[in-house]
């Protein structure tokens, strides 16, 4: 009788456990999901850009002459290509001048490698290096040297430059004497080794009018800029570029392009990012003359469009100014557009840079035609 009683108790416990487990299976809770970048920063995406005063211009003691590029370096200094003054100006993040380089003829675009050397192009067939290490980061004393010259192509113009993998770099190139033709190749992106030897040109479609092709490229940014200090991702070969995208005979629909990668036969190869087709970032007819781009550590993409000229101010071409986009969706989040000489107005702006983190992030604009640099910051006010 005792044994029978124990069996009943054991059976009852087992039955209760089965019922309990069965009930639990009907009360499953979903695993937490990671919100998209747009949802995580929803309030920030509703903010607007306010101008930071003072504007960096003649009135406030700055002497910019057609500044054509601005770059936020890995050393946390801001570098401005003061083009018509033949110099690079070095500032801290707040805009205080820290020094001025020696003479460098008409600098147009600038980048920095992991040794903190500055690499510069100036719409010639040459690449220059400012050796900041040799001068203990005193740019006024830093030696300048030509590290590459394409002597076989004396009319080539190098328009943009960006470091990847720490020391290798891409350069955007045009051949102006052939730009009136639709069958001679006149636009290129060059790939360089760390020792400044040319690997060759990237295998873009010649004079193409869609993705993975370029017509008169203006600027390039490696995704290293997004992954700096993240060693597992910093070695990416991905990049983004802008181009004028048109001649009298040709027009490319995508004035901004993201070149991503995939693995083919064990090798990482470059391919166009087609997922952004139909987005604001790939918007057909949205931009008139994209001049520069930047990316921050959260992957937000910033573009500056020279837009229509003041002489053409009554046309329906896009206005000059800058934009911010979500890189994953291509959605436009903010823009500051306007033509003229006043605050938050632009005259042929050519350069853009951003501090890498969202907190207190500053956007720097080289407002070339107005001989000034303007700074902007997001605000919900």
Helix content: under 10%
Number of E-type strands: 24
Please trace the helix and strand order, writing H or E for each element: HHHEEEEEEEEEEEEEEHEEEEEEEEEE
**Looking at this structure, what is the CATH superfamily?**
TolB, C-terminal domain
β-strand percent reads 35-45%
* Cα end-to-end separation: 82 Å
Quick one: CATH class? Mainly Beta
Sheet with the most strands? Answer: 4 strands, antiparallel
Shape: globular
From the alpha-carbon coordinates, what is the Rg to the nearest angstrom? 26 Å
Number of domains in the coordinates? Answer: 1
**Assembly state (oligomeric):** single chain
Please report the number of helical segments: 4
Mean pLDDT: 89
The strands making up the biggest β-sheet line up spatially as 1-24-23-22
CATH architecture tag = 6 Propeller
Tell me the CATH topology. Answer: Neuraminidase
Low-confidence stretches: 5-9, 25-29
Broad structural category: mainly beta
